[in-house]
Design goal:
- The complex is a heterodimer of chains A (149) and B (174).
- Chain A has helices spanning 29-49, 101-116, 130-148; strands at 2-8, 14-19, 70-73, 76-82, 88-93.
- The radius of gyration of chain A is 15 Å and the shape is globular.
- Chain A has 149 residues and is of the alpha+beta class.
- In chain B, 33% of the residues lie in helices and 18% in strands.
- In chain B, helix 2 packs antiparallel against helix 3 (159-169).
- The chains are: A alpha+beta (149), B alpha+beta (174).
- Chain A binds chain B through residues 1, 3-4, 23-25, 27, 31, 35, 38-39, 42, 45-54, 59, 66-76, 78, 92, 94, 97, and chain B through 4-5, 20, 25-27, 37, 40-41, 43-44, 47-48, 51-52, 54-58, 63-76, 78, 92, 94, 101, 104.
- Strand 3 (70-73) of chain A pairs antiparallel with strand 3 (68-72) of chain B, so a sheet runs across the interface.
Chain lengths: 149, 174
């Protein structure tokens, strides 16, 4: 069961947030902004604090910066996809066994298709695109029903 | 799986114990920035715990409580076991993939064992130790004259010896 989705831009500002299931805790706007920027900074701090880092601080395959990839807490997992441009797609879920990379990649695709290609969308601004919202809901539904099969 | 380092922090962030393993893998850092690095680790774990608490699903009494367990970055994973007294046992390992998917569990179990059977037995129960006056790493140069508290040297116990013995015997240690 997916919980929350955060999309954070390269400066640490929150671009999109959504509760993906009724289990997700209700967070008010201020708190989501705060959480998003904290996750943004912690992503970089985690790489600094580690004794062994990726060469050049970048993942050679994806072009993403070294940083938090997965956070495990009891009964919950949070995974982060950093893109080459510095955007972070962060999703939390109650399942501790699944790999969330697939849904993160699909969300990234949705973002490029519906937000970036939208002529009225300004880069790094909050995403208020209806097609994107519908795409996210559909994607989450597909993953949920796919898992139950 | 390779073990990189092990730290114990008290509830305020002071380092109570630290040890590097397999130092040839580490990037070179001076002892000053080692302390800085440890402060970063503590700060990160502190903030992440608060965030996970906010984002956790409501406790239904069946699932595990949401406590931060591990954080994975590009080349290593940090495992944390926090005790009720706020003490954190932190271990940096590489990103191993165990076949049964329970690798992280094994490390946390070791951390719990280190706390319950080595720390409590050999440090807390040491007759020279009083909680709160542990010699923190990096405090060596300080003047003790003004302080009434005695300083406790962890090397007077068998803690490190027992810790090394346990860690090298683990299935996952390389």
């Amino acid at each position: 069961m997916f919980l929350t989705l955060f999309i954070v831009n390269s400066s640490g500002g929150l671009v999109y947030t959504r509760q993906l299931s009724p289990l997700a805790p209700k967070i008010n706007t201020n708190d989501s902004l705060r959480i998003a920027s904290t996750l943004h900074s912690l992503h970089a701090i985690a790489a600094e604090a580690a004794p062994v880092k990726l060469p050049g601080n970048k993942n050679p395959r994806t072009g993403a910066d070294d940083g938090i990839e997965v956070i495990e807490a009891g009964g919950m997992i949070m995974q982060c996809l950093q893109t080459r441009t510095g955007m972070k797609f962060i999703i939390s879920s109650t399942s501790t066994k699944d790999d969330l990379s697939e849904i993160l990649r699909n969300l990234y695709l949705l973002y490029t298709e519906n937000a970036l290609k939208n002529p009225f969308y300004e880069l790094d601004m909050p995403i208020k695109v209806d097609l994107f919202n519908r795409g996210v809901d559909l994607l989450v539904e597909q993953f949920h029903s796919g898992n139950m099969r | 799986m390779t073990l990189y380092s092990f730290h114990i922090f008290d509830r305020r962030g002071k380092t109570l114990f630290t040890k590097q393993y397999n130092a040839h893998f580490h990037q070179k850092v001076s002892s000053q920035s080692e302390e800085e690095q440890r402060k970063l680790v503590f700060g990160m774990l502190f903030s992440l715990r608060e965030i996970m608490g906010t984002l956790a699903p409501p406790n239904d009494g069946f699932s595990e409580p949401t406590v931060l367990q591990s954080v994975k970055t590009g080349r290593c994973t940090v495992h944390v076991y926090e005790t009720i007294s706020g003490m954190r046992l932190v271990m940096y390992t590489d990103n191993f993939k165990q076949s049964d998917g329970n690798g992280n569990l094994a490390v946390r179990e070791s951390l719990r064992y280190i706390y319950a059977n080595i720390w409590v037995e050999y440090v807390v129960r040491s007759p020279l130790y009083r909680p709160g006056d542990l010699l923190a790493v990096g405090d060596k140069g300080e003047d003790l004259g003004s302080s009434n508290r005695r300083r406790f040297d962890i090397h007077s116990t068998e803690f490190e010896k027992r810790l090394d013995a346990l860690v090298t015997k683990q299935k996952w240690y390389k």
